[in-house]
Amino acid sequence: MIGPDLSDCRCSVLPAASLLPPPVLRMSVLWLPSVIIGTACVLALFVLVRYNALLRSRSRVHEAWSAVDVQLRCRSRLIANVVEAVRGYAAH
Fold first, then answer.
1. Tens of pLDDT along 29-87?
2. What is the rounded CA–CA span in Å between residue 83 and residue 89?
3. Is the pTM above the cut of 0.85?
4. For the stretch 2-32, what's the b/e string if a residue is b when 16 or more beta carbons lie within 10 angstroms of its beta carbon?
5. Which residue in 64, 70, 63, 89 sits closest to 78, CA to CA?
6. What secondary structure letter does DSSP report for 3?
């Protein structure tokens, strides 16, 4: 035999798995509130963006109806001018 016989050794040698540190419970407890807060922030950002888009759309619709109103007023004035021109021509 080349080396000492260690089969009768009664020393306590820990297995390699016990050399790893125990899992940290605080880490597993802290990730859940972080995920909840992160999800709430993303949801709030989404709601804010959609709300601003709705306000922008409402403003564009109001602006479009204002343009239609202006065009209709211009046409009504032009129709009155055309009627006066036809009356003047008919009087000749």
1. 678 888 999 999 999 999 999 999 999 999 999 999 999 999 999 888 888 888 888 99
2. 10
3. no
4. eeeeeeeeeeeeeeeeeeeeeeeeeeeeeee
5. 70
6. S
Using CA atoms, how far apart are residues 39 and 87, in angstroms rounded to an integer?
72
So where are the chain's domains? 24-91
- Segment 67-80, tens digit of pLDDT: 999 999 988 888 88
Task: Give the H or E element holding residue 64.
Answer: helix 25-91
Residue 20 to residues 14, 16, 24, 69, Cα–Cα distance (Å):
11, 8, 12, 77
